[in-house]
Design a protein that fits this description.
Layout: E1 10-16, H1 20-34, E2 38-40, E3 49-54, H2 59-78, E4 83-87, H3 88-94, H4 96-101, E5 107-109, H5 117-127, E6 131-133, E7 155-159, E8 161-162, H6 173-176, E9 181-182, H7 185-197, E10 202-206, H8 223-231, E11 238-242, H9 251-259, E12 266-268, H10 276-282, H11 288-301, E13 306-313, H12 320-333, E14 337-342, H13 360-383, E15 389-397, E16 405-409, E17 414-417, E18 427-435, E19 440-444
Parallel strand pairs: 1-2, 1-3, 3-4, 4-5, 5-6, 7-10, 10-11, 12-13, 13-14, 17-19
Antiparallel strand pairs: 8-9, 15-16, 15-18, 16-17, 18-19
Helix pairs in contact: 9-11
The structure holds 5'-deoxyadenosine and iron/sulfur cluster.
5'-deoxyadenosine (5AD) binds near residues 58, 272, 312 and 346.
Length: about 450
């Protein structure tokens, strides 16, 4: 007779705010907790442990974190044994203040303390005390949490560096993610090899400023050389990286887009503004002309390259003329996609102390114009693909329409199409039938 063994693991629910870096951190947190008698759940009501992995890069995601925390009170009232933890950038920024402000919060863990989470949970359980751990380190111990490969899927992120030393005047990242640190190339290569053995076909190398990878490592290493090594790993069919800083995008690196067939034809290259005086106040370290020159070089070595970007509107001192220069830059580059934001003051940053703050209503108007304008470019670029053949990595059933499969082109566009889910993980040729703003519809050839 066979007895079913009861699953004694507790349930963990994790909600992620913000960027890919946080999504990847959350994935690692889950993998790590699975090794410590937890199992992940999508139902917050059945959770024994709720974690919020937070983002404070802009005002909007930060507000979202606080309202999410507010909603958790009811759950804690219902189940006093429930453990609630906050990690990520808000945790790093607020530290003990968060514990004081939110009486039902148990754990605050900073951006360098992910790997300590199982210990912190144990401590809360044993002592019933609330804990806060937000030390920022300058050793590569912080990469410990990244040594666990993600579950077998089709694509995966791989963290190659943490933190940032650029101190763009509006940005909180250097304060909450610490100084720039590169992960050892041996560890990165080991992880990519393991991922490829698990069936992963595409890796996205992650870091705040990947182009400056290698600084401070014992062994001489550059991002260019790292890419060379990853390119030789069998099984990996596609390589992407994000985020690139225009000032550190070397000619050597640009040339790789024409050399490596595994390197996908897409680069996310945040420009932030089309006005030189704003760029200077932002301390970005390049001019609009430098940026355009890099774009032209990229398009020369790789005519089909897709270029996406980030733009901030309403930076302190931004005039109507400055804003028009940003629109002019958009006309010149014709970005394939754009993330745009209203400037928001972040504590400690230089920009928060600048004069000439732009009225929120004007920021709103500029954002609206810019986004409407970008829609034209995005759609036009997508329409250009109608009737053309695209290579798509099949990721599985579409979440929005399970009848269809979904995948991405090398230029990172989402394509939905009909097919058998057995081809998940394969790279297939697809004829694009119809273009929309955020996706393409296609047919397997
Ligand atoms: N206000 C508005 N947008 C910001 N970003 C970073 N800091 C701020 C801020 N204080 C944007 C930048 C960056 C993206 C990740 O977030 O465009 O590239
Ligand atoms: Fe922030 Fe600038 Fe560093 Fe990007 S490069 S994370 S915008 S400080």
């Amino acid at each position: 007779m066979q007895f079913e063994t009861a699953d004694l693991r507790e349930n963990v629910y994790i909600r992620t705010f913000g960027c890919q870096m946080n999504e990847h951190d959350s994935e690692n947190i889950l993998r790590m907790l699975e090794d410590h008698a937890y199992r992940s759940t999508d139902d917050i009501n059945e959770a024994d442990l709720i974690l919020l992995n937070t983002c404070s890069i802009r005002e909007k995601p930060e507000h979202k974190v606080y309202s999410a925390l507010g909603r958790l009170k009811k759950l804690k009232d219902k189940n006093p044994k429930l453990i609630i933890g906050v990690g990520g950038c808000v945790a790093q920024q607020e530290g003990e203040k968060l514990l004081k402000r939110v009486s039902y919060l148990d754990i605050v863990f900073g951006t360098h303390n992910i790997y300590k989470l199982p210990k912190l949970i144990e401590e809360v359980k044993k002592t019933n005390r609330r804990v806060c751990e937000t030390t920022l380190y300058d050793t590569d111990a912080i990469f410990k949490a990244y040594s666990i490969p993600s579950k077998c899927k089709v694509k995966s992120y791989v963290t190659i560096m943490q933190g940032c030393d650029n101190y763009c005047s509006y940005c909180i990242v250097p304060y909450v993610r610490g100084k720039e640190m590169s992960r050892k190339s041996e560890d990165i290569l080991k992880e990519v090899k393991r991922l490829s053995e698990m069936g992963i076909k595409e890796v996205t190398l992650l870091g705040q400023n990947v182009n400056s990878y290698g600084k401070g490592l014992d062994k001489e290493m550059t991002f260019y050389r790292l890419l060379h090594s990853i390119n030789t790993i069998k099984g990996i069919k596609r390589i992407r990286f994000t985020t690139s800083h225009p000032k550190d995008l070397s000619d050597e690196l640009i040339s790789l887009f024409g050399e490596f067939d595994k390197l996908c034809e897409h680069i996310h290259l945040p420009v932030q503004s089309g006005s030189n005086s704003v760029l200077q106040a932002m301390k970005r370290g390049y001019t609009v002309e430098d940026y355009i020159e890099k774009v032209e070089k990229l398009k020369k070595v790789c005519p089909d390259i897709s270029i996406t970007s980030d733009i901030i509107v309403g930076f302190p001192g931004e005039t109507e003329k400055d804003f028009e220069k940003t629109l002019e830059l958009m006309r010149i580059v014709k970005f394939d996609g754009l993330f745009s934001f209203k400037y928001s003051d972040r504590v400690e940053t230089k920009a928060s102390r600048l004069h000439g703050k732009v009225d929120d209503c004007i920021k709103g108007k500029r954002l609206h114009i810019l986004q409407a304008y970008q829609k034209l470019f995005t759609l036009a670029k997508n329409i250009e693909l109608e009737g053309k053949e695209q290579e798509v990595l099949v990721e599985g059933r579409s979440k929005t329409n399970p009848e269809r499969l979904t995948g991405r082109t090398r230029s990172n566009r989402v394509v939905n199409f009909e097919g058998d889910s057995a081809i998940t993980g394969r790279i297939v040729p697809i004829r694009i039938k119809k273009a929309y703003l955020n996706s393409l519809k296609g047919e397997i050839i």
